[in-house]
Protein 1
Amino acid sequence: MEDCIFCKIINQEIPSYKIYEDEKVYAFLDISQTTKGHTLVVPKKHVTDIFEYDEALAADVFTRIPKIARALEKAFPEMNGLNILNNNKELAYQSVFHSHVHLVPRYSKKDDFSIHFGNHAEQYTPEEMQTITDKIKEQVK
């Protein structure tokens, strides 16, 4: 894609701090460095988000993530955890519309990073949970 910053990075038109590259995937340091080692893993094929992946592309991208995660862990033995995030569409905080996966090393609870999952279990009856389940299952093909 012509104006995509990640396509330009992949094509070496914009410099990056490359961590890993093969024929399908490019991984580089996120310029924000939310924490030390914050890495982005991107498919070389331009797709906007997870909704455009086919099985082959998903395999290409997601099979590389453990390799890169282990490299982060070895590079930074003081790392105590790792968040793996993939934001899809603007409401879900996607800001660059070339699919990418964030690997965010965690060092302490004082890192400038947080995720909060609200617990709304009491708002759904077992029947409503089953309806939600059935509705999704109908669409999995």
Protein 2
Amino acid sequence: MAEISTVARPYAEALFAAVKADAAATKACVEELRVLTELMSMEDVRIALSDPRLEDDQRIEILNALLQNQQLSSQMHNFVRLLVENDRLLLLPVITEQFESLKDAAEGVAQAQITSAFPLDDNQVADLVQMLEPKFNIKLKPHVTVDPSLIGGIRVIVGDHVLDTSVQAQLNRMRDALVA
């Protein structure tokens, strides 16, 4: 069976190719995808929309009813119809993730998952990002979380790269060196 990300990739790429020329359309598309992804993350919605007794039009009607006041652009409506017809609606979270990655790559930006042992204020985050951007050679969008189990220091994840200067990581390295 094909990997989920492999199946979702062509949909994300096609949608991105359709909107990438217009920055406003790209931003609107990201917002609409996030709303749809949030909706599809609900267990009841996934179960209801994957009911084999429903026709494609019924699935779309249910989805539109669940969206209530939020209107989808005609482009997104067509995209959702395509997903429903190809039985790929449950892939929306993966498609959204891949679409955002394509958008970030086109903008020359990468998401930086910063985990700190202690809360960081905005100035500290800005200083950290300023120090990290030359290291990763790309503009970073920080997403900061706090994890007291790190004991001290930070862990930064940018794509496949991990920079872990936490006390926990240092203790683990010391333990591994002593055991070896």
Protein 3
Amino acid sequence: MKTAITKIGNSKGLIIPVQLLKQCGFENEVSLEVKDNSLIISKIGKPRSGWEEAFEKAGVDQTMMDNFGNSFDKDEWTW
């Protein structure tokens, strides 16, 4: 598929058909990267995505994290 590069103020932009945006799962923001003279547009992952699976694979038990609390967490912090 070809698309034109359009002038937008002092910058340039691309018009990406909505079907392609939906197919890639792009929403409001994307990641841009230049690699080997190519522009790579990627979906931005959610912070800490995949951590649970990695912890399970490494044998880390969630109860290990329960010992890191302190009195401030219990007495003063408001959720």
Protein 4
Amino acid sequence: MDLTTYAELAVLLVNGADRLEGIAGLRLLLGESGRGARAARATRADLEAMRALRAELLAVFESADAGDEDDAVARLNALLIRHPVHPQISGHDGQRWHLHLNEDGGIADQYAVGCVMGLAALVTDLGVDRLGLCDAAPCRRAFLDTSSNRSRRYCSERCASRANVAAYRARKRRVAV
């Protein structure tokens, strides 16, 4: 079971605030996350629950980004209690036996199980400092730092490039003055 893939669900949700403006956006987000089959039955209550889950996950990333490991872990533990994980052995589509997370409950509960378990595994294996928010102003999108040297600072190559160009231009202006 690749729990990093599950942790990326949290990043998708945290960065998908615009998708939580209505049910159509929620259905799109669920489709992008590989949960499209559940999307058709999404309700207004599911939308509100996903907004609440997004806020809780964003708070985990903000705590981690601020270097407050204890708060990030406390928030993850609270989510693990609220959304218990139930692994089960599965064999389908000609694959060998492997683990899946049993996702019971509403759409937000099902989504939360993967997010929270993935983040918890990543934090315990690699450290809280692997959860970050983009350094490129004004972006602040969430990301997972899976680099070997813990060096990731931006959510994408686009933000890294934009920040580097801005820093270069600022240095040039200082030299010209």
